[in-house]
Amino acid sequence: RGTLKYKLSKKIKEHRPRTKRLLQEFGDVQVDSVTVSQVLGGMRGIKSLVTDISYLDPEEGIRYRGYTLQEVIDHLPKPKGAEMPFVEGLFYLLLTGDFPNEEEVMQVVEQFNKRRIVPRYVYDVIDSFPTSSHPMAIFSTAILTLNRESEFNREYHAGLKKKDYWEPTYEDALNLLAKLPEIAAYIYNKLYRKGEKIQSNPNLDMGADFANMMGIDKPYDDVSRLHFIIHSDHESGNVSAHTGHLVASSLSDIYLSISAMINGLAGPLHGLANQEVLRWLQGVMEKMDNKLPTEEEMQQFVWDTLNSGQVIPGFGHAVLRKTDPRYMLQREFSKKHLPDDPIFKYADLLYKVVPPILQEHGKAKNPWPNVDAQSGVIQWHYGVTEYDFYTVLFGIGRAIGICANIIWDRALSYPLERPKSVTTDMLEKMVGIK
Ligand code: AMX
């Protein structure tokens, strides 16, 4: 009673009749139709998934449970003296749709703290990687390795009822999320700090403990909280969210599902873009001898990138048609905390220069910056200059949203995902050219 799990179980009971009614009474009502270009074009825009955890409006950006990111940040409880809220409180909001009060958030913090210890064999697996491995490959493997801990698997094989699938899934999700900061910090220290390990501090919240294990002073705790919160969910059709949902739909456990979603996030058109932004910016800086280029020089660099057939990392979006609010929040944070940072100045110049060029270039449907155009800039400022690591940070945040989604998938008994494919021959016949 009064716990997150109890509240969630009530919310699930209340919600189930809505899904059931839609299926039973309105199962044949058409939601969308599909064109040839959607079939050949990555299923862009087809309305064929459902989630109540977040919704991405093309003009406005993401809302979590109906709230804008600014509202989420304003209304979630914050640790004493912090500018950014408890990440644990966000998990509560994503799962239940309600803002937790102080007491409710502290219960979740306590739950996370209890589940932090990472088994020894996970460290052994991480240590067996060559130091030249990409941290996302190590991160995904470390998560996968934990699969033997799955309570869902144990209970499923013991005959768990379908309506109860969500409960051990919830336990698995908390057990995994609580360990991610330590796993990530361990990977960071192994790859870039000769294995120096800073112990987790059970008296800290998730964001503060991550900053502690990274060995970075304030306000990196707030940077971490902000980062994990804004990266957590972006409705269900993006590659990482969809992968997590798809894999979980075969009743693979949380560890298998989140490891898979991390692999999707690791691609340069998705999460890896934030590392690409920094790599690309470094190229400009080297060329300019670290001096801030003029607007004309920057324009030239952008055109050179486009003319060589590359995309401008951190700009464009598959759904958004305006500047990403996640970008804006990080820009506001940067303006407050690192206004004189040279890389921030570069990023700011790009914000001015790139959109008109992409418009003139005429290909990208959205010329505005996305979340990845800013996040690496902040990390760099606080000393996390190894940009290969940035997508791991994205992954910690994204895991929170995907876990919440998978718990609800199980609660509402969403079935195995199985769309239908056709052959090119069939498409040609359908359009009448064969
Ligand atoms: N620079 C140059 N060209 C771009 C571009 C950019 N930033 N964004 C889109 N385009 C091009 C596409 O490559 C595509 O060209 P093509 O027809 O020759 O293949 C054309 O414009 C139309 O693309 P679109 O419909 O506007 O975008 P999309 O839905 O196919 O792809 C995205 C979306 C994000 C992959 C794309 O904008 C991109 O590659 N951006 C740069 C990488 C990036 O920032 N990714 C991070 C996205 C956010 C995230 O997931 N973290």
Automatic annotation (TrEMBL):
Its EC number is 2.3.3.16. InterPro entries: Citrate_synth-like_lrg_a-sub, Citrate_synth-like_sm_a-sub, Citrate_synthase, Citrate_synthase_AS, Citrate_synthase_sf. GO terms for biological process: carbohydrate metabolic process; tricarboxylic acid cycle. GO terms for molecular function: citrate synthase activity. It comes from the Bacteria. Keywords: Transferase. Gene3D superfamilies: Citrate Synthase, domain 1, Cytochrome P450-Terp, domain 2. Pathway: Carbohydrate metabolism; tricarboxylic acid cycle; isocitrate from oxaloacetate: step 1/2. Belongs to the citrate synthase family. This is citrate synthase (unknown stereospecificity). It comes from Ancylomarina subtilis.
